[in-house]
């Protein structure tokens, strides 16, 4: 059996990669993918703790996080498509807020 610390190290590594991706990337789609990596790293931590503590609560929370992530992707991609149709740009730096 793999120790709990390895799963938590993997979760921390993925979380770090996701946060760095959000802070460094300028493409909106890459930022959205980085947020998904962060959410999946949190899911790994929840499932590993649920397995270690012999509880199902962590797996139930993961179900809700996955549902929220699917809604976030659907809404995010719809907004990105609408923004691209209006501005023809996906760079975060070139988008001014609330101006058309």
Any chance you could write out the topology, listing elements then pairs?
Blueprint lengths: L3 H21 L3 H25 L4 H31 L13
Helix pairs in contact: 1-2, 2-3
Can you walk through the features of this model?
With 100 residues, this protein is an all-alpha fold. It has one domain: Helix Hairpins (Orthogonal Bundle), CATH 1.10.287.3510. It is built from 3 helices and no strands. The protein is elongated. The mean pLDDT is 89.
Give a quick rundown of the structure.
The chain is mainly alpha-helical and about 100 residues long. The protein has helices spanning about 5-25, 30-50, 55-85.
Count of the domains: 1
Can you tell me the CATH architecture? Answer: Orthogonal Bundle
Using only CA atoms, what is the Rg? 17 Å
Mean pLDDT reading: 89
Give the number of DSSP strands.
0
Written as H for each helix and E for each strand, in order along the chain, the element string is: HHH
Query: CATH topology, what is it called?
Result: Helix Hairpins
Q: Classify the helix fraction into a percent range.
A: over 70%
The stretches of 5 or more residues where confidence is low (pLDDT under 50) are none
Question: What's the overall geometry?
Answer: elongated
Helix tally equals 3
Beginning-to-end CA distance, first to last residue: 56 Å
Q: What class would the helix/strand composition place it in?
A: mainly alpha
Strand content bin: under 5%
Q: In this structure, how is the largest beta sheet organized?
A: none
Broad CATH class: Mainly Alpha
């Amino acid at each position: 059996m793999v120790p709990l610390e390895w799963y938590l190290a993997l979760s921390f590594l993925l979380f770090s990669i996701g946060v760095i991706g959000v802070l460094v990337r300028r493409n909106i789609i890459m930022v959205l993918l980085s947020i998904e990596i962060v959410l999946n790293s949190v899911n790994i931590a929840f499932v590993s703790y649920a397995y270690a503590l012999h509880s199902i609560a962590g797996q139930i929370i993961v179900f809700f996080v996955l549902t929220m992530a699917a809604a976030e992707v659907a809404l995010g991609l719809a907004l990105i498509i609408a923004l691209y149709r209006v501005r023809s740009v996906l760079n975060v730096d070139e988008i001014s807020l609330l101006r058309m």
